[in-house]
């Protein structure tokens, strides 16, 4: 395949990642409009966000396993069709239940595309160019993840919520048509496809009940009996999943992959960094719109500083990754990430919006420069490229879900400490309670960031040790 076709294929797969991650975050901003138009309470409308993430996390490993057997491109293209159809259903939904069905179809398609897009990149680019290719993919995907609230605020200031789904449709059609004619031909990898149904069912129930327990805990409290029971069900199915996978001939995921220490550390550090990134999606709209009394459109413009910086940082970091290594580049950018987090731990109402926006630029640089895909895919053997790609997407989406939970839980806890009572809403009459909660939330983000830095430093040390060993071998 010619180089220009490689680049076009990279952009085609990456833009699907953009739209799918955008849909995971942009809907948060549309919840007030959705509750009004569909005449549903806020807690029910939140399922529009959560059912999409749950569906993706439930099926990512399955499609990664299937991709290793029947090919990345077939599954990616099928996922593009389902995601586009799901977007059409969402855009035309007259009721909550049809909208939820559309989100389920979207989630099915997104899980197929997310599980395979990194594998496609690994297939078409030589090792010497993968750092930059992964960097471009990461920047476009991260843009979808980070720009959701900002872009959503701008769209909703002039258009209805239907447009956050309508925009997916032409992009999905274009990507599918391009892939139909331009993606490389891919032969079936095995004669007989093996299905690990026990693994799929136990894992799907485990992940679904895990997320349901988180969202229920946000709504009715984590000490509630129903929440504890749901979490226990999740734990039981997790145990069943791990037991089944160790005794099945062709498991959903071969746990031997986690014996590759650098790969495991890369996955965990990526989960943490994505969790931290979601703090901004959750907290910034409250700070700018409610606490600082800014318009939705201005809030959107300010928050666009994060994806703007991400656009600049990711390809530059990708270039240095090809020249040096992903772990070294990531450590530098994680320290840059710490600067705005420390600032947000002590931000006040009197701080200049210019300074605040400048700090959001640093958030985008730190996040965009973190080289999770090159680390994950670079440490995965060729036979595990498909499952490694799906694990990368899984840990990214788990990070998003956990980030929402961590950000809101720490925010509410910090506000409750200040108020000396339980607070689980924006305290309109006491805005300083919110500010205290925000400071506490970003304190927890700093702790998570320190853990991520330690993990990536461990990867760097292993890289260095292996380089020395090869030199004197």
TrEMBL record:
Membrane topology per record: Multi-pass membrane protein
Keywords: Membrane, Transmembrane, Transmembrane helix, Transport
Any GO CC annotation of this UniProt entry: plasma membrane
Residue stretches making up the Major facilitator superfamily (MFS) profile domain: 9-464
SUPFAM superfamilies named in the record: MFS general substrate transporter
InterPro entries: MFS, MFS_dom, MFS_trans_sf
Membrane spanning stretches: 45-63, 75-98, 104-127, 139-157, 163-183, 195-216, 222-244, 265-288, 300-320, 327-347, 353-370, 391-413, 433-457
GO MF assignments: transmembrane transporter activity
Compartments, as annotated in UniProt: Cell membrane
PANTHER family linked: MAJOR FACILITATOR SUPERFAMILY MULTIDRUG TRANSPORTER MFSC (PTHR42718:SF9)
The protein, known as: Efflux pump antibiotic resistance protein
Taxonomic source organism: Companilactobacillus bobalius DSM 19674
């Amino acid at each position: 395949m010619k180089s220009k076709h490689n680049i076009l294929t990279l952009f085609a797969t990456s833009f699907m990642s953009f739209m799918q991650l955008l849909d995971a975050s942009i809907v948060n901003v549309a919840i007030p409009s959705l509750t009004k138009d569909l005449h549903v309470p806020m807690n029910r409308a939140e399922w529009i966000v959560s059912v999409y993430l749950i569906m993706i996390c439930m099926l990512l490993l399955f499609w990664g396993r299937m991709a290793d057997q029947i090919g990345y491109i077939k599954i990616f293209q099928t996922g593009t069709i389902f995601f586009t159809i799901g977007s059409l259903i969402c855009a035309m939904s007259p009721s909550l239940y049809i909208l939820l069905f559309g989100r389920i179809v979207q989630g099915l398609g997104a899980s197929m595309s997310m599980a395979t897009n990194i594998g496609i990149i690994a297939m078409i680019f030589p090792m010497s160019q993968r750092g930059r290719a992964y960097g471009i993919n990461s920047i476009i995907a991260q843009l979808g993840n980070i720009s959701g609230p900002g872009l959503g605020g701008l769209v909703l200031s002039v258009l209805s919520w239907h447009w956050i789904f309508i925009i997916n449709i032409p992009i999905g059609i274009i990507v599918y048509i391009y892939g139909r004619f331009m993606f490389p031909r891919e032969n079936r990898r095995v004669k007989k496809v093996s299905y690990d149904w026990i693994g799929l069912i136990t894992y799907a129930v485990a992940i679904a009940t895990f997320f349901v327990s988180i969202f229920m805990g946000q709504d009715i409290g984590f000490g509630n009996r129903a929440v504890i029971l749901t979490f226990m069900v999740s734990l039981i199915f997790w145990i069943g999943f791990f037991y089944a996978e160790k005794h099945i001939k062709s498991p959903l995921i071969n746990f031997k992959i986690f014996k590759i220490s650098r790969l495991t550390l890369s996955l965990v550090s990526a989960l943490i960094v994505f969790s931290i990134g979601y703090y901004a999606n959750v907290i910034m709209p409250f700070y700018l719109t409610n606490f600082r009394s800014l318009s939705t459109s201005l809030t959107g413009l300010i928050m666009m500083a994060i994806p703007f910086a991400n656009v600049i940082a990711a390809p530059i970091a990708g270039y240095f990754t090809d020249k040096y290594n992903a772990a070294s580049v990531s450590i530098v950018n994680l320290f840059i990430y710490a600067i705005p987090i420390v600032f947000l731990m002590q931000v006040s109402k009197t701080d200049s919006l210019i300074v605040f926006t400048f700090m959001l630029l640093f958030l985008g640089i730190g996040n965009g420069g973190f080289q999770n895909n090159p680390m994950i895919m670079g440490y995965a053997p060729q036979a595990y490229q498909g499952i490694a790609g799906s694990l990368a997407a899984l840990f990214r989406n788990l990070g998003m879900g956990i980030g929402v939970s961590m950000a809101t839980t720490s925010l509410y806890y910090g506000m409750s400490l200040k108020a000396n009572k339980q607070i689980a809403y924006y305290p309109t009459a006491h805005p300083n309670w919110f500010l205290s909660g925000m400071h506490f939330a970003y304190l927890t983000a700093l702790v998570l960031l320190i853990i991520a830095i330690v993990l990536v430093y461990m990867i760097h040390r292993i890289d260095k040790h292996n380089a020395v060993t090869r030199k004197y071998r």
